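How a chain folds remains the central question behind the approach discussed here. No coordinates are needed to read the tokens, only the vocabulary itself. For completeness, the protein is quoted in full, as a sequence line and a line of structure tokens:
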Amino acid sequence: MSEARAEPVRVLTFIEVRSDSVARASALLREYVDALEEGSQPLEAQLLHEVDRPRRFVLLERAASPEVLRQGEERGEGRLQAAAALFTAPPDRRTHHPFARSCGPGTPTAAERAGHEAISVVAHLDIAGGADRAGPEAALERLAREACRNSGNERFEVWQQTNRSNHFDLVARWRSRRELDAFAASAAARAFREAVGPWLGSPYDERLYRRE
């Protein structure tokens, strides 16, 4: 039991706000992120703003254990409640554990925080229920290796949803949109899409974000 509690946890929370409240919601959500990171235990939080649909945000949380995550979210509860009045729907919260290889800093570097050209990607991969996941999972591992070798990549992670083990989220950061597009057109990225295509349970969903 103690080992299970010590497992690292990853959370994606998708948030949509009113079109007349984007700036205010962003400010309140940044306060929530600050509260999450105030504790003595390691908890990293990032707020990302969707490029193509500015009413949408995603909050990324990385904690050493569920208990650390719980403590952080308790600290920020009041700030999140203040922001919730501006939401158009309840937040879509998905809990994960790390899967496959990842690369990049454990916490954002000064360059990450200051970079205006850098772009983040969250991609959702749904493998059809009942399918043999060995092929798609191997393809995910190969893609992670290739992305981590790319000089334009600053961070690449694969997360597996805890309550739906056939659902994966790819969380990445690239130095620029140009370098992301170059990798998306590469042989490695194409091979990945070809490998997972026959097993998809829903369309492959990729969203682009800038850091708030």
In short: The domain at 2-211 is CATH 3.30.70.100 (Alpha-Beta Plaits). Strands lie at 9-16, 43-50, 56-63, 92-103, 119-126, 153-161, 167-174, 205-211.
